[in-house]
């Protein structure tokens, strides 16, 4: 049970292993497996089996042996581990990008944040950790299946519904202006195909000085969003970037870059809301051939009414796969739910169809 001063979900990160928890097992060759502890359960491999009862009650960081003597190091999965292994229906926002979003958008404790779309809930988890129990995160998702998957994943890592979270179904640009008062939002986070379509909605709900950050997959999306923000006049000059992560092999004097790296996953674009009636300053640049024509716009979006999502790098997800992922996410919650009795089940994570 959490005390009133304990951040939501913190108890699940401390103390000995308990039934229903997810535990990451690493063998002597560095191979990792994540299991959910169940009384009487067992983890089987070709090297033998390890009973879950051996782990329940043990301190985090212990080393245990299976029936044939093979050893495993046991730790709770970090957020980055959980995000990359959780049930999903859509591609997740990678930890490196989620960290950039939280920092570069200045997501602070107590902030009022809106996001769209939710996907599998990876970014929602990072945003909820940043705003805290006294903050506010309103997530908008067009597909109910994605909302179900996200809810299951969020409740798994926090041990139940989060008090600062609300999900609504529908198109962001239509719903956010109905449900959020003008100028009441501190930060807007968009992960969608056409963020430029949301200019008016973002400008309406975002407070002066507030940050708008968009996550897009392709150069054409990045370019069109930036040009739309410039043309609108209610925001500061947009900034765009991407991040890449390269690990290093560390073994004695054999210190070198890893052969594999997490390279391009997406672009991030930020801008800040100006005060009403203010004309933003345009940076002075040398004359260049940077203007675009109607033909260029056609290249950006051959048909604005019918976006080719696969052409923009988004893979289609079958309904069968979505249903399976939602079932897996819900099952994970049921096996490992640590319900916070201080908070009613309806405190957060509700889906409302406005």
UniProtKB/TrEMBL annotation:
Please name one Pfam family that this protein belongs to.
GCD14
Give the UniProt entry's GO cellular component terms.
tRNA (m1A) methyltransferase complex
Q: Which domain of life is it from?
A: Bacteria
Region described as Disordered: 1-29, 318-354
- Which residues are the signal sequence here? none
Give all residue intervals belonging to the tRNA (adenine(58)-N(1))-methyltransferase catalytic subunit TRM61 C-terminal domain.
84-248
Question: Per its UniProt record, what SUPFAM superfamilies does this chain match?
Answer: S-adenosyl-L-methionine-dependent methyltransferases
- The keyword tRNA processing is annotated on this UniProt entry: yes
List GO molecular-function terms, semicolon-separated: tRNA (adenine(58)-N1)-methyltransferase activity
Which keywords describe this protein according to UniProt? Methyltransferase, S-adenosyl-L-methionine, Transferase, tRNA processing
Annotated GO biological process: tRNA methylation
Comp. bias intervals (Polar residues): 340-354
- Tell me yes or no: is Coiled coil among this UniProt entry's keywords: no
- Residue ranges annotated as compositionally biased, kind Basic and acidic residues, are 10-29
The record ties this protein, via PANTHER family, to: TRNA (ADENINE(58)-N(1))-METHYLTRANSFERASE (PTHR12133), TRNA (ADENINE(58)-N(1))-METHYLTRANSFERASE, MITOCHONDRIAL (PTHR12133:SF1)
Q: What is this protein called?
A: tRNA (Adenine-58-N(1)-) methyltransferase
């Amino acid at each position: 049970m959490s005390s009133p001063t304990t951040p939501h979900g913190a108890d699940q990160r401390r103390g000995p292993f308990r039934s229903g928890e997810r535990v990451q097992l690493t063998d002597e060759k560095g191979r990792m497996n994540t299991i959910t502890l169940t009384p009487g359960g067992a983890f089987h491999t070709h090297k033998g089996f390890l009973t879950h009862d051996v782990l329940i009650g043990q301190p985090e960081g212990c080393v245990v042996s299976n029936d044939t003597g093979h050893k495993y190091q046991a730790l709770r999965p970090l957020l980055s581990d959980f995000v990359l292994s959780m049930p999903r229906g859509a591609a997740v926002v990678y930890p490196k990008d989620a960290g950039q979003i939280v920092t570069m958008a200045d997501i602070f404790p107590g902030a009022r944040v809106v996001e769209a779309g939710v996907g599998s809930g990876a970014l929602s988890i990072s945003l909820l950790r940043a705003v805290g129990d006294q903050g506010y995160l309103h997530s908008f998702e067009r597909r109910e299946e994605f909302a179900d998957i996200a809810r299951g994943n969020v409740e798994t890592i926090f041990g139940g519904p989060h008090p600062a979270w609300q999900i609504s179904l529908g198109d962001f640009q239509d719903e956010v202006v109905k449900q959020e008062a003008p100028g009441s939002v501190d930060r807007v986070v968009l992960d969608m195909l056409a963020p430029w379509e949301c200019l008016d909605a973002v400008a309406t709900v975002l407070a002066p000085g507030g940050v708008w950050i968009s996550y897009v997959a392709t150069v054409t999306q990045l370019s069109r969003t930036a040009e739309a923000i410039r043309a609108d006049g209610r925001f500061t000059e947009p900034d765009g970037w991407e991040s890449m992560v390269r690990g290093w092999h560390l073994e004695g004097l054999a210190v070198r870059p890893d052969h594999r790296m997490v390279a391009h996953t997406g672009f991030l674009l930020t801008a800040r809301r100006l005060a009403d009636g203010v004309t933003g300053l345009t940076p002075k640049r040398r004359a260049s051939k940077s203007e675009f024509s109607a033909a260029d716009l056609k290249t950006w979006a051959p048909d604005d009414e019918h976006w080719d999502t696969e052409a923009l790098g988004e893979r289609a997800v079958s309904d069968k796969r979505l249903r399976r992922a939602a079932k897996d996410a819900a099952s994970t919650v049921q096996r490992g739910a640590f319900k916070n009795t201080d908070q009613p089940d309806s405190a957060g994570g509700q889906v409302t169809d406005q």
